[in-house]
Design goal:
Largest sheet: none
Strand content: under 5%
Radius of gyration: 13 Å
Number of domains: 1
Number of strands: 0
Number of helices: 3
CATH topology: de novo design (two linked rop proteins)
CATH architecture: Up-down Bundle
CATH superfamily: 23S rRNA-intervening sequence
Structural class: mainly alpha
Shape: elongated
Amino acid sequence: MTDNILIDLSMDFSVEIVNLCDSIKGKSVLTNQVIRSGTSIGANIHEANYAHSRADFISKMQIALKECYETEYCLIL
């Protein structure tokens, strides 16, 4: 665990997403997309911690938010 709750929560979410998709029989394009977008959230949050500027930090966090929305959409489908 880190001192950053967003990193911790996004890591836990990534693990849950991977476990969920692994438990689904008959892999599909949709499960692959859920894994990509679901794990990308944490990757972008982690990368934001090493941003070169405030604008870069905001950009990385916005990308993470977009990945959240994409993952949500795929899960609803």
